[in-house]
Amino acid sequence: MRLSDDEQRMLNGEMGKGVQQAMEILVKMGELFGAKRFLPVKNAHIDAAAYTTIWDAGTEFIEYLLNNGARVAVPTTINPVSRDIVDWKKFGTTEGFAEKSRRLEDAYLKLGVIPTWTCAPYQCTNVPGFGEVVSWSESNAVNYVNSVIGARAERLPDLVDVCCAVVGRVPEYGLYIEENRAGDMLFELEGFDEEWFQDSVDYAVLGYLVGEIVVNKVPVIKGLPEHTMPDDLKSLSAAAASGGAVALFHVVGITPEAPDLETAFQGKKDYKTVKITPKEMQEMEERLNTAKKDKVDLVLVGCPHLSFPEVREIAELIEGKQVSENTKFWIQTNQTVYDLAQRAGVSKTIEASGAVILKDTCLMEMECDGVWEGQHFVTNSGKAAQYAPSIAGVNITMADMKGCVEAALTGKKPEGGRRKC
Ligand code: F3S
């Protein structure tokens, strides 16, 4: 790689051993991907926050950087950790595990991160501009920031994301290169009436389906309604990055790099077209629905973390009602959204129902140890439908937000809220 004078000084160790270590890793990674140079970044988002992701070895690496003079060089937000920092005891986290998480959180705070502890930094605190080069990890966030905002990002591996934040640079490869951002495959939606795409769960199912087919290429989706909202695209981003490894998608007429088909494909004509009808959506949803029993053990929403409008929607649906004593209702968000919910009085409404709001964390990042094995989860998240069975050994029923609340109130698989084709 060709290095600037400053980058060479970092590599030589003139800015400390921590920066030198980060630079050595990034040069090796850049060479592996054929990068010719580094790009300066204006902000970073780190995925490697949960103790259950990087364990003791990862914690020691962060402490090594810290103890050798490294600090983040640009404003840097960070993913959920492995415990609700305030209410960890309420969720069964043990003292020893909380201590491991606390040690990692402390290291990151000393490194200089902004303690957002969220996988949806784009809905509060860290909102890059169109075309801005950023070093982000966390698959849903990379997909969102590339696709919905039009910033420039790639799926950086855990800990490489920390190195980028420390040197304020990223190797120029993959989706940092303009021509790699062209669409590869067209998905045409057909036969959907106005009942479809009224809830983000439809976007989750679509995202999962598209991700499975396109894997790690760039899909272009045509036919989504004009009323598509950022929270809908958040669901699509997370599911497409889980069903496949999508890091950038275009929605014609909605996302910024796709005002029309020609622009989305950068003039390419030789792309494959896949038709998606209600039948394919129904079949996809049936494959995600692995639960056989009626009784629901846990309803899980907020993967990725919920925005304030989503938290308010739950409050409106649940006001004056009680969660079934046979089930649990877990609502995942970050402290920033929780503060807004408190100010607006909606967290009180939700908590009065018996539902609980997790901050700073998520079930998939918490201490697990088989506690959920064989249980039945209802969720509106395509990413949770992918990860919860493999991480926690559970079975899934997909539902829209109304169906999730219904399941929490009755303790049973929801009847309402989902259409049949
Ligand atoms: Fe976020 Fe955890 Fe889901 S980090 S995207 S809530 S698996």
Automatic annotation (TrEMBL):
Record-annotated Phosphomevalonate dehydratase large subunit-like domain positions: 1-406
SUPFAM superfamilies with a match to the protein in the record: Aconitase iron-sulfur domain
Gene Ontology molecular function, alphabetical: lyase activity
Pfam families: AcnX
Keyword annotations of the record: Iron, Lyase
Name of protein: Predicted aconitase subunit 1
